[in-house]
Amino acid sequence: MDSPTTGTASARTDAAAGATGTAAADTCRDAAPGLVRLGLTGGIGAGKSSVAGIWRDAGTAVIDLDAHSRAVLDVPGEGVEEAVARFGEEYRAASGTIDRAALALLVFADAAARADLEEIVLTRVDAAVEEAEREAAAAGERLVVHDSPLLLEKHHEDEYARVVAVLAPREERIARVVRDRGRDRAYVESVMAAQATDLERIRRADRLLLNNADAGTLRTRALTLLEDLRRELLGGPAEPIGPACAASRTARVRSHTRDVRPGT
């Protein structure tokens, strides 16, 4: 997504750390009891949201972190007022919300402004995501997906049992955003520059999903990968994701060969 906000649900201490490219010491948070948490990420135009939709339609609980972060600035209230106080009245839209396009240009070019925006948004996002997880667990869900565009940029891998990154060729990504969202090429490239590179996604994700064909092919690949992950993660006891997740996940990743197939 092209939101100027982080699109992540993490501890408040991650806000400043993420903006400087470092990881805070306490990034791990407990998932709701009984849940296994799966991270889904990808750069602008890669098709992450399409994959999230396919998985949601297949009956998987998906929490859209970017949607929760957008709501902070898209609904008049405390979040909007705090943003206007920090960045200025010129960023207030006629609707009483935030002029997202104008603010995006600022925060993608200014690390300090980006950190300030994260500080405004993250507390409210955390509370919304925690409630969504409790509702999923109460409904009997065992697997919950966090649709998080900047999961890797904020060094949040250790919050998830597995991380899936959606990849697509650079020019295809640019063309999709220009065509589908009405953005110009310069805007898309500025967002790409602020996000992780594909090489970083390949190195740090547990699974890759390649979106370089038609919608039917993407659907097949996404559902195949989801079934593989369900067998892997839910075939036995749920893997704990909590305060000690960084150490346990590091040990687990080292114990098996990382699967970075693009999906079949």
Description:
This protein has helices at 14-19, 48-57, 65-74, 78-87, 100-109, 111-138, 170-181, 185-194, 198-204, 215-234, 245-254, and strands spanning 36-42, 61-64, 143-147, 162-167, 207-210. It is an alpha/beta fold and 264 residues long. The protein has a domain at 29-66 and 127-254: P-loop containing nucleotide triphosphate hydrolases (Rossmann fold, 3-Layer(aba) Sandwich). The longest helix has 28 residues, at 111-138. Residues 1-27 and 237-264 have low confidence and may be disordered.
Present the secondary structure layout.
Blueprint: H1 14-19, E1 36-42, H2 48-57, E2 61-64, H3 65-74, H4 78-87, H5 100-109, H6 111-138, E3 143-147, E4 162-167, H7 170-181, H8 185-194, H9 198-204, E5 207-210, H10 215-234, H11 245-254
Helix pairs in contact: 3-6, 4-6, 5-6
In short:
By secondary structure, the protein is of the alpha/beta class. The chain has helices spanning 14-19, 48-57, 65-74, 78-87, 100-109, 111-138, 170-181, 185-194, 198-204, 215-234, 245-254, and strands at residues 36-42, 61-64, 143-147, 162-167, 207-210.
